[in-house]
Structures are given as structure tokens and as C-alpha cells.
Amino acid sequence: MEKIRIKYYECNMTKMQHLIAYLLFTAIISVILYIYYHNLFVSVAGGAVVAVFQEKFYAKSVVKKRQNRLRVQFKDFLEIITISISGGSGRSMENAIKDSLRELKMMFNEKTDIVKEIAMIISDYEQAGIPMKDGFRELGERSEVDDIKSFATIYETIDGKSSDFSYIIRQTHDIIRDKLEITQEVETVISSAKSEAYTMLVMPVIIVLAMSAMGSGFLDSLFTTMPGRAAATVGVLALGISYVLATKAVDIEV
């Protein structure tokens, strides 16, 4: 397995993925602007500019989602090694971690982040003699995931110093599991609120589109006169500000 030490706090999207995301946002924003302005040049130009910022925001969300996936996967890893060392058979932490790789491959595929990371830690330990505690500490630094950092600190503290490390690891797992459950409950509530917020943001666009499509000329002044252009600009700015505020309001760290 190829050893690629990913920095999870950095965006790992390819240039092509960035380009596709940018073009997609440009198209979506251009369509929204055209609904308000009925001017192709203004719509495309405005869409191209705003899409730069939206693509950066999207890239940050991709980083956060990958970190969250790794956090959930790490909880499953902790559960595996907790069960392994809780049998009271004097099983070492290193052997429990080695055996966990087989279980992780059954739960996920070999391309999953946690599988690749645990495989690298085991490989470094067996081939280069790097202590596993150092591997987890390095993973914590690369991932910027608090749960992994906490586990690495505890592992480094108790390694070779505590005869009751199975109890400490079990307690660590329980704390991380409880924290993750609370986080997921909060995210469920946030997702519901986010859906409602985005629905409210879409409604003004749908109303303007529907009224302009009626063909009665009711909104002709919006697209042809200076006061109409000014009103359209105010509407677009209000829509943009509402989107930013709604996005920040649901961006809660637990």
C-alpha cells in the first residue's frame, strides 16, 4: 500500500475538481443573476466573480467533511481495540492495533482513510521500528482532529507506564463515543435548520422567475429601467447576505 501522509487540514482536491466546482458554481450563480437582471453579460461576469469565493468556501467544507469522516472512522477503530484488549488476557496495545486492521478492512475498503493510516502506523512500527505512539501523534498533527490528538496523548502517557491501560483505553473510547454521539445529534438538528434556511433563500428566486415567466409584463420595469435595476441589485445583495448569514449561523463547532 502506497504511503501518502495526507494533511487533512489542507484541501486535497485536484486542480480538475477545483475547476469543475468553479464552473458549476459559475453556472448556478449566473442563472440566478440572469433571473434578476435578464442581462447575459452581467449575469455571467457576476457569476464568474462570485464563484471564486463560493468555490473556496466549498473547498473548506470538503476539508471539514473529510475530517469528520476520519473522526467517525477513528471511533470505530477505538471500539475494535477496546474490545480486543478488554478480555483481560494481557494483550498488548501493539497486537490489538495490528489485529484491528483486519477488522477495519472488513468494515471499510482499503482506500478508506482510517485503513490507510492504521496500515502506515503498523508498517512504520514493523519495518522502521517507529513506536506506534509516535505514529498516532503524527496522525493527530496531520488530521487536526481533537479526538485523535487526545488518544495519541493518552497513549504516549500510559505506554509502558500503566498496568491498567485497558481500563484507560476503554474510558477514552467511551468519552470519544459519547462526544461523537452528541456531535451527530447536533448536526442532525443543524441539517434540518440548514434545509429550512436554504428553502427560504430559494423562494425569492422562484417568485421572481414565476412572475417574469407569466408574460404579463408585470416585471418589465425591473429589467429595463434604472430604478428597476437598482431594486434588482438590492434583492441580489439581500439574497447574498442572507446566504452568508445562514451559512455562518449553522456552522457550529461541538
Can you characterise this structure?
This protein is mostly helical and 254 residues long. It has helices spanning 15-37, 40-85, 93-107, 113-128, 132-143, 146-158, 165-213, 220-224, 226-249.
Q: Strand count, sense and closure of the main sheet?
A: none
pLDDT < 50 runs, ≥5 residues: none
* SS field, number of helical segments: 9
What separation lies between the terminal Cα atoms? 34 Å
- Strand percentage, roughly? under 5%
Shape: elongated
Share of helical residues: over 70%
Radius of gyration: 25 Å
Average of per-residue pLDDT values: 85
User: What is the N-to-C order of secondary-structure elements (H for helix, E for strand)?
Assistant: HHHHHHHHH
How many strand elements?
Answer: 0
How would you name the oligomeric state of the polypeptide chains in this document?
A: single chain
Specify the structural class. Answer: mainly alpha
Question: Characteristics of this structure?
Answer:
254 residues, mainly alpha, elongated
In short:
This protein is mainly alpha-helical and 254 residues long. The chain has helices spanning 15-37, 40-85, 93-107, 113-128, 132-143, 146-158, 165-213, 220-224, 226-249.
Fold topology:
Layout: H1 15-37, H2 40-85, H3 93-107, H4 113-128, H5 132-143, H6 146-158, H7 165-213, H8 220-224, H9 226-249
Helix pairs in contact: 1-2, 2-3, 2-7, 3-4, 4-5, 5-6, 6-7, 7-9
